[in-house]
């Protein structure tokens, strides 16, 4: 079973920073999950929220920023004094790190609150940056925005895509949604997920990765049900589930 470090090793490092991603290689975790969005000047950055308050020392919307502003924003000090100086990485910097370290990534495209044109700009920016990825590095692109995923898959069918869904979203049409996107994989929320859901997905021929799984017992149950991967803040603690 694959183990994805959710936002990097986010239980012991500040989420979505290069420190949190670099720590994965030290702990033998070779897949990360990360979130991307776009600054006002079109730079694609690695950050979960569209506002800076929760994970940096700055405030306001990321949509008002340019790449130069990143030099003045600290994304580590909120977590611990040792982590002060960590930056909000650009996707280009993360891809450089993937090439250097051998990390593979699930890149989650966040829907842009400013509308479709900006979400499309983000998707194109992700594809543009991925051109620098070494061919041996693996990538899965996911999103709750299934329309943008379908568009991305049409433009760049070489990338694996995963539709993010909650159990509630997994209605009668889940299979045709995946097929219309061209998705090979579904990323489902762990809450309320049963063996029957997993069986349905596997019987239909799709891979399934589950988020966010922070208890070892739940991770091993999901593995026994045939889940392909779990996305966890504690991926480093579940290493024995990877190969056994
Ligand atoms: O990609 C799985 C998970 O990360 C989705 O939720 O809010 O943590 O990005 P969130
Ligand atoms: Mg995410």
TrEMBL record:
Signal peptide: none annotated. It comes from Rothia aerolata. Transmembrane segments: none annotated. Pfam families: GDPD. The gene is glpQ. GO terms for biological process: lipid metabolic process. One of its GO terms (molecular function) is phosphoric diester hydrolase activity. InterPro entries: GP_PDE_dom, PLC-like_Pdiesterase_TIM-brl. This is Glycerophosphoryl diester phosphodiesterase. SUPFAM superfamilies: PLC-like phosphodiesterases (SSF51695). Residues 1-242 form the GP-PDE domain. It comes from the Bacteria.
């Amino acid at each position: 079973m694959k183990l994805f470090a959710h936002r990097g090793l986010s239980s012991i490092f500040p989420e979505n920073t290069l420190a949190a991603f670099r720590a994965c290689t030290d702990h033998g975790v070779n897949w990360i999950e990360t979130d991307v969005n776009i600054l006002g000047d079109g730079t694609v950055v690695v950050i979960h929220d569209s506002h800076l308050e929760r994970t940096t020392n700055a405030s306001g919307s990321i949509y008002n920023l340019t790449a130069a502003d990143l030099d003045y924003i600290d994304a580590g000090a909120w977590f611990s004094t040792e982590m002060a100086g960590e930056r909000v990485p650009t996707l280009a910097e993360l891809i450089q790190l993937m090439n250097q370290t051998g990390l593979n990534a699930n890149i989650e495209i966040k829907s842009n609150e400013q509308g479709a044109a900006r979400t499309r700009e983000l998707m194109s920016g992700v594809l543009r940056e991925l051109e620098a990825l070494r061919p041996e590095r693996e990538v899965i692109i996911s999103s709750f925005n299934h329309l943008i995923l379908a568009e991305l898959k049409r433009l760049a069918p070489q990338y694996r895509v995963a539709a993010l869904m909650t159990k509630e979203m997994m209605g009668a049409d889940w299979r045709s949604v995946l097929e219309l996107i061209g998705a090979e994989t579904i990323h489902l929320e762990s809450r309320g997920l049963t063996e029957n859901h997993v069986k349905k997905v596997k019987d239909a021929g799709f891979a399934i990765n589950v988020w966010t799984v922070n208890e070892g017992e739940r991770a091993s149950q999901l593995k026994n049900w045939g889940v392909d991967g779990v996305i966890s803040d504690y991926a480093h603690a579940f290493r024995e589930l990877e190969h056994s």
